[in-house]
Design brief:
Length: 332
């Protein structure tokens, strides 16, 4: 693994801007608490939790390679753990160990297909990439073939175990969990491997966070028209518009972190993320509503579980990645 220990100028400015972003956010929280004594008591705790989240995410994202692969694998496995536990509350079980193994396999194929392979792995497995690499026997990257094999493997598990009762729901829950929280998050590996990959990850993360923050703020200040009252009663169309504005604002502030991206592509990416992020939030809200739970867990103080914090990112990541591929193909 090649660790670049010297920060390049763009990465350094990006990190400094993130520090400024946190400082401004902290000042806003302080002013909000002073002005609104009956405000959200969790706001300060949510803000302080970001100081725990930021280094855990930013350092592996900068170094890339094995460090980032471990982070994405851990995110995927913990998201699967929370999803399986939430599903179990309504007696919708899952094939947990099969799901975890297949989830790791998905991330592993993303590592190989992106050529972001730690040296010890490539030395220990000679010839592996020539079979399952960027040009495998199937003519497409293995990462895109894996969903077919995941479905096939999950379907044959009951046959191997000789069990049929309740298997259909378990199979459906397992396939959904692996594909949504494994395959979707696996696209982070491809994003990191792009030129300016660290900048793209920062761009995406800040756009998702500002979408959430400004959607919450606009909803509290101006929200009147409910968006999906049966799924998420607090979400309003005014909040959604504020969130979209937040994603576009992130584009304006962090565009220089990805100098290879044109302004039309950047604005388009901000709009794509601004639409995909709240949809990801609503998708997990549907799951939690169906399972009759408020939070997916208690991992992050003030936020709840990992799914409560990463729900928008899961859906926005592949949307952003494929938009980038499309914009490059169209020469935007």
């Amino acid at each position: 693994m090649n660790l670049n220990l010297q920060l390049d100028p763009i990465a350094m400015r990006t990190l400094m801007l993130l520090v400024g972003f946190f400082a401004v956010a902290g000042l806003a929280v302080f002013i909000y608490e002073r002005v609104n004594k009956n405000g959200d008591g969790n706001l300060r705790q949510r803000y302080l939790s970001w100081y725990m989240i930021a280094p855990v995410v930013l350092l592996p994202a900068y170094f890339g390679g094995l460090a980032f692969a471990v982070l994405v694998t851990a995110l995927s496995l913990y998201a699967l753990k929370e999803f399986f536990e939430v599903a179990h509350l309504r007696e919708v079980g899952a094939l947990k160990w099969a799901g975890r193994v297949l989830g790791v396999m998905l991330i592993f194929t993303a590592i190989y297909d992106s050529k972001d392979i730690p040296e010890p792995f490539s030395l220990a497995l000679p010839g592996w990439q020539s079979i399952f690499g960027v040009q495998p026997l199937f003519g497409v990257p293995m990462f895109y073939v894996m969903p077919v094999f995941i479905i096939m493997l999950v379907l044959v598990v009951p046959i191997a175990l000789g069990i049929y009762e309740g298997m259909l729901m378990k199979q459906c829950a397992t396939m959904f969990g692996v594909l949504y929280f494994g395959w979707f998050l696996g696209h982070l590996i491809f994003l990191r491997h792009l030129p300016d990959g660290f900048g793209y990850l920062v761009f995406l993360s800040v756009a998702v966070v500002l979408n959430d923050v400004l959607a919450y703020t606009a909803g509290r200040l101006f929200g009147k028209h409910k968006m999906t009252p049966t799924i998420s009663p607090k979400k309003t169309w005014e909040g959604a518009i504020g969130g979209l504005a937040g994603s576009v604002l992130a584009v304006v502030v962090f565009k220089y972190a990805v100098p290879s991206m044109s302004w039309p592509a950047a604005i388009g990416a901000g709009i794509v993320i601004g639409i995909a992020a709240p949809l990801g939030d609503l998708i997990v809200s549907v799951i939690k509503r169906d399972m009759s739970v408020k939070d997916s867990g208690s991992l992050i103080p003030g936020h709840g579980g990992l799914l409560d914090r990463c729900d928008s990112l899961v859906f926005a990541t592949p949307a952003f990645y494929y938009f980038l591929l499309l914009s490059q193909r169209l020469h935007w």
